[in-house]
Amino acid sequence: MIRILMTFFLWRQIFVHNNTALGYSQSEMMSYVFLALLTSSFVIAAPSNDNIGAEIASGDLSKFLLKPFGYLRYWLTRDWASKLLNMLFAFFEVYILWLLFKPDLLFSISGINLMLGLIALTIASLIYFCLGKLALTITFWSPENTWGLMFIIMVFFEALSGAMFPLKVLPVDLFNVLQFTPFPYLVFFPIQIILGQYEIAIVLRLIALSLVWLVLLGFFLQKIWRAGLRQYSASGN
Q1: Tell me, what's the pLDDT at 28?
Q2: Comparing 128 with 94, which gets the higher pLDDT?
Q3: Nearest residue to 154 via CA among 1, 18, 3
Q4: Which residue among 4, 70, 136, 150 sits deepest, i.e. has the most Cβ atoms within 10 Å of its Cβ?
Q5: Coil, helix or strand for 20?
Q6: pLDDT tens for residues 123-146?
Q7: What is the number of alpha carbons within 13 Å of residue 203 lying toward its C-beta?
Q8: Nearest-CA neighbor of 43 among 3, 90, 107, 93?
Q9: What is the pLDDT of residues 159-194, one digit of tens each?
Q10: How large is the C-alpha radius of gyration of the chain?
Q11: Are 34 and 5 in contact (CB under 8 A)?
Q12: Are 48 and 75 in contact (CB under 8 A)?
């Protein structure tokens, strides 16, 4: 709730003396912020990011490696359970925020855009899982520096995903470069799809590209995770 309030009041204050900011009206920005708060609570929520590094560093990973199920698949299921719970709380918190302050929102969401947006969000959640676990593999080689490094990486991911602000406010060149990374596919593009900002052909292309990123990141995660497990075994844990 604190994060939601901080984000809301930050943008509310920006528009106190301005009708527009960064190319957005107050209604447009608040609509984006409310959707970003909801979607990021699903995509970016990942309790595994707080646990996997510690289990690798402490040696507790060994207990899971002896069990008849995949360690990453185990955390994926736990993450998804947490995401669904987070979404319930996020809907409640955002609704309370709207009741208290009644910001002017501009929503015009069709059924097809919502369905395609949910597909994009599902893929986005899996992309974020792969990105987070790729970042955590550094723990295999540097277990003593996990927490600080992961905090910086996750803030970096959140900023470049569009969870804090619409990426369109960035300089054009930087935004164009970001489109060649997986980050806009986490929050920004799914929100734009839900809001109907793109034609169906572009939406399908964005979903296809997000699937390409998911396959690539999943492939690299498996490779690097196996390399890390060899390092972990060699360390005597």
Answers
A1: 80
A2: 128
A3: 3
A4: 136
A5: strand
A6: 999 999 999 899 888 888 877 666
A7: 21
A8: 90
A9: 899 988 889 889 999 999 999 999 999 999 999 999
A10: 19
A11: no
A12: yes
